[in-house]
Amino acid sequence: MTESTAGAETKATGAGSVLRRRVARVVLLDPDDRVLLMHGHEPDDPDDTWWFTPGGGLEGDETHEQAALRELAEETGITEVDLGPVLWKRYCSFPFDGHRWDQDEWYYLARTRGTETAPRPQALTELETRSVAGLRWWTSAELSAAHETVYPTRLAELLRTLLDEGPPSAPVVLAPEIV
User: Fold this and answer.
1) What is the Cα 27 distance to its own chain's centre?
2) pLDDT tens for residues 8-66?
């Protein structure tokens, strides 16, 4: 049996459930070319952490662009942005909160007109409240030197290419990431 909830299609399996989602993510750059990442963790294990871009599942008849802007506002409080092109597309699958999440993700470039020194979530879901520890602006150099888990795993390289060459003429399809 499947049901659609908050942009995810849930399918029960013998080992739990698989949540399939279409996702819009935002590579948000400030005027200093720093990228904003969210610090997440497994809800029941705050020591299992990683960094990721803001974004989430499409709801109803929402477009990817609408979802990107909505999720950015909900997760960071930032609404004054210029949404650019789709940079990358990827499929990922990972365990989280007792489920397997299968996602088709579109990554949009967005730029702020100013730097929010302390972006604050405005409308996190109950699950996000239990699994998001904070937000941080990262320079390309900091991201390249980081010893922490970041998704997508090639984000440092992708960001450096973006800053050096500009957005691609068409979205780049990234290799699938299965965790």
Assistant:
1) 8
2) 554 444 456 888 999 999 999 999 999 999 888 777 777 778 899 999 999 999 999 99
Q: Which residues of 104-140 are buried (b: 16+ CB within 10 A; e: fewer)?
A: ebbbbbbebeeebeebebeeeeeebeebbeebebbeb
Residue 158 has, within 13 A of its CA and on its CB side, a CA count of 22
Per-residue pLDDT band for 154 (boundaries 50, 70, 90) equals: very high
Q: Please give the full DSSP string across 1-26, using - where no structure is assigned.
A: -EEEETTEEEEEETTEEEEEEEEEEE
| Residue 16 confidence (pLDDT) | 65
Residue 121 has pLDDT above 80, yes or no: no
CA distances from 108 to 42, 63, 69 (A): 25, 12, 10
Domain boundaries of the chain, sorted by first residue: 2-178
On whether the CB atoms of residues 110 and 82 are closer than 8 A, the answer is yes
Q: Of 130, 110, 96, 125, whose CA–CA distance to 36 is shortest?
A: 110
Instruction: Report pTM.
Output: 0.85
CATH 3.90.79.10 corresponds to the domain 2-178: yes
Question: Tell me, what amino acid is at 81?
Answer: V
DSSP conformational letter for 125: -
